[in-house]
Amino acid sequence: MATLTRTLRPIFRCLRNQTRSYAEASGNEMKFTFAGANQVYYDNVAVRQVDVPSFSGSFGILPKHVPTLAVLKPGVVTVYEEGGETKKVFVSSGTVAINEDSSVQILAEEAHLVENLDNSAARDILSKAQQQLNSASSEKDKAEAAIAVEVAEALVQASA
Asked: What's the pTM?
């Protein structure tokens, strides 16, 4: 063990001298790309902030955010544009990548503007998903139905 410690000591010294820092970006600019299977919402556009729902909790992304990869959970992505406008988009699932250069990419399985959602249609989808869950017999069918219920519940909440 002592030999291993002596061997690794120079490596640990080098690591101690390194400092962790936030992304180095020019000014406070954050380039944002957001696409779903049905539409591209932003294509390398400067925005002020993006709020995302993830399985590790919802969080906001600002310029110079620590580089991160996260999985999106069903919910609403809120984009605060440079001009002061706010856009809300429902996502069923997907990924978010925050890069060292302050660029952010969101790739969603399904994405729709919240303003275009129909609450009664969302409630119908939830009802059908719950029926599917109740009638599922195999573990696979139960898992798929549980996912459908989770997405439908988030859809109902977003459309309210």
From this structure: 0.77
